[in-house]
Amino acid sequence: MKPYYITTAIDYTNAPPHIGHAYEKVLADVMARFQRLNGREVYFLTGVDQHGQKVQKSADKAGQSPQEFVDGVTAHFVSLWEKLNVRYDGWAATTDPVHKRVVQTMLQKLHDCGQLYKQGYKGFYSVRQEQFLTDKERGPDGNFGEEWGEVVELEEENWYFRLSDHVEWLKGYIRSHPDFIYPAHRANDVLNALEGTPQDLCISRPIERLSWGIPLPFDERFVNYVWFDALTNYISFAGYLADESGNGDVGLPDFSKLWPSEAHVIGKDILVPAHAVYWPIMLHALGFSDEQIPRLIVHGWWNVKGAKMSKSLGNVIDPNVLAATFTPDGLRYYLTRDIATGYDSDFSDERIIMSYNKELAGGLGNLLNRSINMAQKYRASVLTPGTYDDAENAALRQTVTDALPAYLENMSSWAIHDGIAAAWKIVSAANAYVDSTKPFSLAKDPAQAARLDSVLYHLAEAWVHVSVLLNPIMPTAMATARAQIGWEMPEGFQFSDLKWGMLKEGHQLGAPVPLFPRLEITETAD
Ligand code: MSP
């Protein structure tokens, strides 16, 4: 079977990461880990978008060369991914010579088949958005709105891509491929954007205006415009045109085995026009068939009190601060449990504190701690399943068995928050089971010894299942939990290997250590 090829957007390196960036990478990492446990080989690509005018400007301001500047910002991203356990297989940095060679080979290919042409143009240009503006972009008062920043009048020659030739194809493709975009309702936004007279796409900037980019191979007085450069990362680092570009020996994956990607994980702001119009049309123009068009997974945004995070509002949330307070896994949990994939969510101190103290410390951690503690106290940490059974045991076993299919269905369809909720049914049921079976009372009555054995066994066994199901979300904490249960997930273990009865007679549990110690806080640093 073909590997599950998953990518994320590559992050702009003009500023350090915030929780929006962290969410996207954690979301993709959760899916990559889920797919591996689901029996798929996975290739996970992420990286950084290092070219463009914004970077050139920020570097000038900082008194650094663009390369020095992007190297500095890139280091913040890399260290955050390391901290948050985002484990990727490929790193896409657009200044990497591997990437530049493919972009140039691809541009030459499009040039050779007549898809690019040069033309003069006079018009208004947004420096902030790096694009020419048309009357469509004017507000009701006839002016260009604040979102465009500084707008200047420019006259220059540029290279254009024959985007408009392929718009009819794209409309047909979108209508006949309802799976192209998740969530499906976003396809309407794309079709609406394709209404009206199609325009071609300017793909260059004269070198005097922008030098921090990849030169066009057929006209070195121009560099490639950022989107054409950035989007290509999904194929350049997957081995596209490796031999033709001179990347034959650099250890890239085999493109024919990897492509198409089953998930380009991106935010809603870069769906139209970049990922849903430019990208499929670029691939189509390069000769990719309809079956070779990648799938787009479009997530929503994390806002703060309903507002967009921005430097000027001073409301940017630093994931490093949150990871230091709530642990990296605590942050991964919050970022995946408190948002429905495809929709927006609001970051709040109260919610992250609640998710940590009530759910992780109080619900999950407490269950583990009391299960392991009681087994240590009453049975010297040795499990004896025995033959005792009753309706309460049967009900807990049923909850554990039923959780798996619900979890698998939700997780594989990107409803991560519902997948977590499905796994959490075991946690809630097991906590209620402790409350109702009262092992501390059973321990006082020698006639209840067999029942106590079965209760301790059921709790430990339920934990094995929880530790596998929540592993994609909280890999470190779940490995710690397994060490306490004394059960290691074997190499190559899959969800389909999970059956009731993973722990055998005489199983030795480890020592209890609080998994998520309760935090005495009411507010965070942010
Ligand atoms: N460099 C481009 C993407 C090129 S992909 C070929 C870019 N970079 S970005 O740094 O601005 O954004 C990177 C990703 O983070 C995007 O998918 C974007 O949607 C996402 N997010 C940025 N802010 C976000 C939130 N506040 N919340 C959730 N995701 C957000 O766009």
TrEMBL record:
- Domain spans labelled Methionyl/Leucyl tRNA synthetase: 4-137, 154-371
Q: What is its EC number?
A: 6.1.1.10
Q: Spell out the InterPro entries in the cross-references.
A: Anticodon_Met (IPR041872), Met-tRNA_synth (IPR014758), Met-tRNA_synth_2 (IPR023457), Methionyl/Leucyl_tRNA_Synth (IPR015413), MetRS_core (IPR033911), Rossmann-like_a/b/a_fold (IPR014729), tRNAsynth_Ia_anticodon-bd (IPR009080)
* Record's keyword annotation contains Protein biosynthesis: yes
One Gene Ontology biological process = methionyl-tRNA aminoacylation
Q: Which residue ranges does the record assign to the Methionyl-tRNA synthetase anticodon-binding domain?
A: 390-520
A GO molecular function term, named singly, is:
methionine-tRNA ligase activity
EC class (word)? ligase
Q: Which SUPFAM superfamilies match?
A: Anticodon-binding domain of a subclass of class I aminoacyl-tRNA synthetases, Nucleotidylyl transferase
Q: Which UniProt keywords apply?
A: Aminoacyl-tRNA synthetase, ATP-binding, Ligase, Nucleotide-binding, Protein biosynthesis
UniProt-listed Gene3D superfamilies: 2.170.220.10, HUPs, Isoleucyl-tRNA Synthetase, Domain 1
Q: What Pfam families does the database record attribute to this sequence?
A: Anticodon_3, tRNA-synt_1g
NCBIfam families per the UniProt record, alphabetical = metG
Give the protein's biological function. Is required not only for elongation of protein synthesis but also for the initiation of all mRNA translation through initiator tRNA(fMet) aminoacylation.
Q: Which family does it belong to?
A: Belongs to the class-I aminoacyl-tRNA synthetase family.
- List, alphabetically, the PANTHER family matched: METHIONINE--TRNA LIGASE, MITOCHONDRIAL (PTHR43326:SF1), METHIONYL-TRNA SYNTHETASE (PTHR43326)
Q: What is this protein called?
A: Methionine--tRNA ligase
